[in-house]
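Before any further analysis, backbone shapes were mapped to integers, which produced the following:

***
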Amino acid sequence: MTDPFGTEALRESVLAAWSSSPTRLREDAATEADLVVGGYRDRVITELAQNAADAASRADVPGRLAVWSVGDALHVANVGVPLSITGVQALSALRASDKTSEHATSVGRYGVGFTAVRAVSERIEIRSTSGSIVFDGSRTRRAIAARGLSEPEQGVPVLRLPWASDDVPTPGWDTEVVLHGVVDVAEVLTAAARESIDLMLELDALQSISVDGTELVREVSSGPGAWTDVRVGGRRWWRGDAAAARWFLPLEDDGLTPDSPAPLTRDVLRAPTRSDEVLTIPLLLIADVPLQPDRRRVLPGADLSVVATGYAALVADLPASHRAAAVPRPGLPASEVDEAVRAALVRDLESTAWVPTAAGRAVRPANAAVVDSISAELADLLVDVVPGLVAPEASDRASATALAAGGVRRLGLAGIVESLSGVSRPPIWWHRLYDALTDIVHDSADVDECAALPVPLTDGRTVTGPRTVVLVDGDRLGSVGWARVVHPDAAHPLLRRAGARTARPADLLADPALAAMLEDPDDVPEELVHDVLTLAAAVGGGTRIGSVGSLPLLSSDGEMRAADELLLPDSPLRRVLQRDSPFGVVDRSVVDRYGADALRVVGVGHGFGVVVDETPAGPDHDLDDEEAWWDSLSGEPGTLVAVRDLDLVDEARWADALTQIVDDPVTAAAVRDRTGYTAWWLRRHARVNETPLGLLRLPGDDSLRGLLDPVDHPRAAEFAAALAGPAIDDADTAADLLAAAADPDRVVSPAVAIRVHTLLAEAVDAGRVDLRDIDPPEAVRTLAGSVADPAAVVVLDHPRWIALLPADRVVLGSTASADTLADLLDVETASTALSVEIVSVGELATVDTHPALAAARAISSWPVPDVVVLHDDLVVRCRGTVRVERAVPFWVTDDGETHVSRTVLP
């Protein structure tokens, strides 16, 4: 058997030392046991991988590592520099390593780390192309026994005595470590597969690792800036190299982007392989820091600040959307090492310009401000307003939280609003801003934070606070200097949500502040006239704002006159007004500039104007005869809608004027209200063919035919409320009807005569007509339809008189109001003026025992008493104003006795 490494001499040297000093044997056994049980537990694959990486690095070849099992034997093979004499010496020395200064970057070469193999095996072969050795616990025990030495309590130090071996590594490999008798080899393989990806990151010299036939290969390509793209086993990182550390940012495909950062929340320090120092930084760290011999803890007093050198510069090379992922999250550190590393990273980040801004340049955290989830639109608007505004792609909620932890100022909605103070921008810019802000104004609390939001006005000012402004529909509002009106280019629903009031252009024109500015026409500037008319154009011609009627406008005669004193040049109203009408005509140039509709809004006349008062309190609307109308009402009107200037109509032009009134929907509505001012005034004052409308009837209405003439107008039905109606409203109408009834040239039917007398008495009883306001007529209309002297007739006040008195000697209305009619006509009632005696003789008859009388009571609505006086032919004689004697069917005396003629019985 060949022994190229002099193993026999090495064994003899060690055995001699043990023999001369048994204590040394116990110390070596304890040291090996401590390393196996303590420092290097569970690090078999890691330590062998480090040796493989060193071998590849020394040979300057791409490192390869393979792990497999044969029975209970675990095989770990690698390429690179084969086993050497110094390597064997290091392996058998426990505390020594063959790493030299020329290989200072090596991570281990058969030093104490190799002791980890003892955790799983006590027979370890190292097969190499340069020669092979074996460590064997059984052979070591026999060798100790042969020297008369006792086995230490901790067991024999297996790795102190190497034996030469003729076995060679598997073809294709330079070195192969075989661990025999591994209790759970499958579990070790599983652990190897699990650790392989980390080892590929930690050990640069290794290009591939194969575990039980499954190979992982590290693929490296260019990344952003100074970073490289690393892929291993379906996972991906960006790697950045600094002076004393390598940094790996984990990436994942989140379904939106294939390289979305996936920062760590908990990991361990690697130097270069895993230690037990827990870190809570977002990137995987492989650092050149001194570790304790067991490679699990950092040496006390080690300067960890060096690991952060150049970190922020690397972060600045990341895409803007990834940089926040590299900022340590706030939280309690996991250890002193973690605290030191985090602090060093924060210091480096604070002193470097790496925070991406919307302006396209990086700034230090102290000079940056981040708005959570800011949109690209909002960022574009605020880039010149908020210094150091973080770019939208780096402002999602998670990134904003991280940036704030790194010293970036976090800007909420209130902060945005505050930063806008004093900013001057065109109205359309503000509209875009409000639109962009809508995405971050979610609830009432957000709305409250908009309380100081600047708002541009139509007059060029920019004021603070939506609650102080008014939103008006329309895009041609002009400059509204008397109210804080939002410029139409800036109007946005967000302002309404934030408290802005809404108004129509008409509401602005009705503002008392404007009316106050127009009180003195001589002090009204041309600019204000222009602003008012521009706004009026947005109202539309169907509305008239009475409070701006004093607006001074140029008239056709060159004078300045109030708008409500002018008419449009083509106004149809001009045709029907009196020659001395106070109205002027607005100059044509004003019409051409602003339009007829705008002028009509401020009061310039086209047709008849209308006065509207929703809460009238008295006759104070400057309407002709308004007080008389008000007095005619039973109570205050709910809303006053009245056509004005009716008293200025030429009396000969009323037919045309009425047509104009019904042509306009607004005035037509006013004239349809019978109790309203317009219909009332027209009935009293308007005349068609010299007859007041109140004494004209609607064609087809025959209720007062013969007394009233039909109105001669093709559209009479549309102003029917201004004609004679179903009731008499006032004393003048009553007097006119009495005069018509007394006119012998009029042919009046009995029914009409009865109806007019009934209406007259009802008007008096209802209080609409006062008897003191009416003179008794010189003639009256009788039931026969004839005209008679009032002294020759009586008013029927009981049905019994109908059969007795001639129709041309009586006046009839409603018997219930006969006394009122008698007072109105100055005529006595029949019961007062006449006396009656029974001329014929009759006999008492009991109704129930008399067949004809019983039948009469049963079939008649007339109330027949139980006992009557029955006459063969009932004759009565009347004396007084009317003298007559005639047969009657029945009669009831003043004392209630009923007389009946047999001629009327069945």
